[in-house]
Amino acid sequence: MRLFIVAALAIALLAILFAVQNTNLVTINLLTWQFRESLALVLLATLAIGVVIGLLVSMPALIRRDWRNSRFKRQVDSLEAQITAAQQDMAAQSEKQGALRESYDTLLGSLGLMDSVTGLLHQKALPQTVSSLLRRLYTEVEDPHYRSVCLFLMQAEPTAQQTGILATQEKLLWQAIADILQQNAAVESWLYSDGKGQFACTATGLDEKQAADYGEALQAFVVKNSVPLQDGSVVDVNLSVGGAIANRSHPTDGVTLLQQATEALNQAQQRGRNRFRLLQVSA
């Protein structure tokens, strides 16, 4: 801004010097009028007329630009209001879902279906849950949320360098892994645990690629960093994941789906540490 002020002052000074040094009179003819004015005044007047003409020519473009900017600003304000409203609605929905899940957990805990170590559903409820999901898969054919049923079995264990952790730390480790899975699992998923390092997850509505991506993501959330425990220590973990997916093209039952997921987990463990294996139920 200061640079522009200095430039304007310099131009004004040059104009004054020009006017002082060019005082010769010249004759100006305009239609039927005739004037005699100094050369400097004539040139400065011509320059002013040129500036005015330039402003008049550019004025429509400036007005159109201001109008577009004003319109874009109104659109931005409208979109920001819509985004804010959507965020508030999502927050309200998440709060409702959290409260609903908490009430479910309370009910399941009162029925003795919660694992006391991790706070997840106990794995003993898994066969009944899988059978119920499969029934909905075959009966609610119009519901896109039940176009498939996926079951993931996850076996966690400390790495070879940390196999000697204390029994109390093992419980803290299973709790920490459960917290990680709960924080990153999809809202429609349900998590299970046996309290001894094996976890399970049921999900619906995924195709085979989505199921593979989801299983690998759950594994990555656990193994990408050392797991922090509540006592302040950290533990490196291996997590093998085996999954099975059933859809209406290949009818099956809960026992078969559990067997397929167990077989996938065994294959993943045989391949090495932190492996993932997904099987499509075929019978």
TrEMBL record:
The keyword Transmembrane applies. Residues 100-279 form the GGDEF domain. Gene3D superfamilies: 3.30.70.270. SUPFAM superfamilies: Nucleotide cyclase. InterPro entries: GGDEF_dom, LapA_dom, Nucleotide_cyclase, Rev_trsase/Diguanyl_cyclase. Pfam families: GGDEF (PF00990), LapA_dom (PF06305). Keywords: Cell membrane, Coiled coil, Membrane, Transmembrane, Transmembrane helix. Residues 69-96 form a coiled coil. The chain crosses the membrane at residues 38-63. PANTHER family: MEMBRANE PROTEIN (PTHR41335:SF1), MEMBRANE PROTEIN-RELATED (PTHR41335). This is Lipopolysaccharide assembly protein LapA domain-containing protein. It comes from Almyronema epifaneia S1.
